[in-house]
Amino acid sequence: MAQTAKREWTILLYSMADQNKLRGFANDTLLDISRASRDCGVKTVAQVTFHSSVVHPIRRYDFEERVSSNRKTDVQNRLQFVPRKNIDPRRNLVEFLRWGQRTYPAKRYCVVIQGHAWGVDYDVTPRVRAQEKRHNSRHERYHLILGSPGSKSHLSNKQLQAALTSASAQGKFHLLGLDSCVMGMAEILYELHECAEYTVAPEGLGPIHGWPFYPILTELNRKPSMKGAALGALVLRKYADKYRESGGNVKLTIALCSLRYSNELMKAMQALVRSLRKGLEDAAIRSAIVSARLRCQFIRIPTYIDLHHLCSQLKREPSVHTNSPLFNACSRVEKVLKGRFVERVALKRGRTDAFGLSIYFPKWRIGGKERASKWEKLPWTDPMATPSTLAEGVAKIETAYTDHEFAQRSGWKEFLVEFLKARLVP
To answer: Would you say domain 7-261 falls under CATH 3.40.50?
Structure first.
């Protein structure tokens, strides 16, 4: 068989639409891609995981118009698909990405992953695990960054990293789109630097409709030779055009990050953590850290704050002198982030204190008044609840960073524990 000529780009969409509310939006995305795929030199393929109650819950679409005997037709969108066997979430992703690169070779690859995501501070609670046990589930205790707590399609940080690294056999993916809430975190993006050159991810919440694929693919097809950074910038532009007025006061900040600066970010964070831990020993500096943290910008979820804004707030504290190690460490982190690791930011909506990259930094006051929880009626406990004891707080931090190299290497996890002990115990 003759070798298929390489395209400029192959786009590989992996969608975890395994909650009923997501099914309609996944179908809209598939139709969007189908419209843009006609007479298109850029190839897009997709694999969608629907709810287990759906016939053929895992479906692979290549948007070919020719009829094939091994394909079925989706009754909702009338698109042809190939049913796939459910192996497990990580291997499903690996197998799809390998198939897409093998079947549709290209000079450059863009991987887009869609679904619910929860940052680092989320694990499936004992109540859900007990329910699963009653149904003979063999689930281990899951710590999630991607997937639905009410389903079995979960991916942890390490599982996502291992899947992408294993599937990127031809080198790093040129662009990785994380079309899921709060995936634009230092802890998450740092650990993808071995498998992707650039990422596009929201710092906070992302709209459930996801990327506007039709205008993105239409323009990419007109200029298919654009490289990863250019495609990332195109995504930000079209995303901002679509969601400029959406969400009201909910900020939909999204950023293009260059992972080539990951090692620089790690070194800058190690210096910052050393200075912060040393500062906790001094009452004035400790107070300055607390003050800066309380003023820090967050996007809807208060445990995830903007990393650049944290540094700028620390530098404004009177007790943090301009020639101090802490001031210099903050400046170093700012320098690595702005225009380097975080190459572009969209949808800041006039908020100059959102720079596109967050970090986990809870501001719990142990023994403080419990806030009302919007999660009470759901079949799992509040993932953002304030711990009632110091031991619970430390355990929550340990759980959040179960498999995060960034938190371990930088010392950020140890700093959070020391910060909690030093300041937030009444």
So the answer is: yes
Longest dimension (CA), the chain: 73
The rounded distance, in Å, linking the Cα atoms of 266 and 272 is: 10
Q: What is the pLDDT of residues 293-334, one digit of tens each?
A: 999 988 778 889 999 999 999 999 999 999 999 999 999 999
Pairing state of beta strands 358-360 and 304-306?
A: antiparallel
pTM of the predicted protein model: 0.89
Where are the chain's structural domains?
Answer: 7-261, 263-338+358-423
Q: How many CB atoms lie within 10 A of CB 194?
A: 12
Q: Are 269 and 412 in contact (CB under 8 A)?
A: yes
**Number of C-beta neighbours around residue 425 at 10 A:** 12
Location of structure tokens 């281990």: 140
DSSP state of 75: T
Residue from 123, 126, 173 nearest 147 by CA: 123
The CA–CA distances, whole Å, from 153 to 49, 54, 126, 207 equal 8, 14, 18, 20
> pLDDT tens digits, residue range 352-378?
678 899 999 988 877 655 454 444 443
